[in-house]
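Contributing new complexes? Match this layout with zinc ion.
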Amino acid sequence: MSTRIQSLQARRIWDSRGRPTVEVDVYLEDGTMGRGIAPAGASTGSNEAIELRDGGAAFGGYDVQKALANVRREIAPTIIGSDALDQRGVDQKLIALDGTPNKGRLGGNALIATSMAVLHAAAASQRLPLWRYLAGDQPVLLPLPEIQIFGGGAHAGRRIDIQDLLVMPVGAHSMDEALAMVANVYRAAGDLMSDAGRRAGVADEGGWWPDFASNEEALQMLTRSIEKAGYGNGEVMISLDIAASEFGSDGVYRPGLEGRSYQRDEWIAVLLDWLAKYPILSVEDPVAEDDTEGMIAFTQAAGAKVQVIGDDYLVTNAARVREASANKACNAVLIKPNQAGTISETFDALQAAKACGFSTIVSARSGESEDVMISHLSVGWNAGQLKVGSFARSERMAKWNELLRIEEGLGASAIYAGRGALPV
Ligand code: PGA
Ligand code: ZN
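Output block (do not edit by hand):
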């Protein structure tokens, strides 16, 4: 039976923030269907693939009719007849058809939804779970999860400046145990917030709304939550996504809660002070995306002890990863398919990172859907780590729960990456 693409269908659906997004169904000649859904960021890097939005009054300008029309009028006629098993061939057609460096003509949302749909269809046509289709016969690892406990920054009305305060259950022995440990920390944090009269709902990715007086108070509360849940001896460690591009540029940082501005070196000193005081093992985007000097300085000071992740700084781009490795500007990369715009380019960024000795973290966006592809990418590509947001709301839980099913499917050969996934 042929795995050639027979038809595409594009529709507007709604993401986890209630905003329009692009869904694409790809049908193969053998009757298989694959469905891709574009996620969406809020604190986006300026070099990411462009999400094509309609602008205007409807839905705050977020409608995606132009992107949908691009799938129907241009993308479908171009890839119909292509073999879905040839992901790179399909993606190359998409890249050439768009013709821009940032996917701005057809829209990164139109392209990634299509590219994901093709991959889902290919795996389904082979009657394989997606992770297994990707891994072939190679052994795989279940990823160390980074799970948000408090959400801040652009995902919580800038209530605090740090965007994500996350935990990593490095001491777990299985995925099942890892998620159970995080469930305990999440609940403990909610109870502590409640006791302190500070529990005010959840942020965009399901983490507790950060009703704190300072950024450091959030770090104290997270450390206490880990202790209250009963974890010591480095079993559960902290990971921070500073997302510093949201409050810094040109080497100057203006975190709203701190009430003052910091020069690059002063801001790095604040971060190093936190590293000295709290059990932090990973820091993402410590300085702004335009601050290579700051990334290098931070990595020089802290990179031997903590994972330093480039997200906005690297935007899932293989060439940027290689440059950052040459500069020693970080030691890890966040891998977000919609930052690249196609699955093949996402894979290239991941492979470039592995070749440089960087650790790799497959990641969701703050605007998500029921699609669980990233769980499969993290396992099938042996990324070692997965970041999905918090431990609440089904667009997040669907992805964590999928890892439990994959772990069960692997049976005795299931290996949890744990602490070994980190570069330090
Ligand atoms: P975003 O946030 O999806 O809003 O960009 C996630 C992140 O910064 O890691
Ligand atoms: Zn980030």
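Reviewers usually confirm one structural detail per submission. For this one: The chain has a mean pLDDT of 97.
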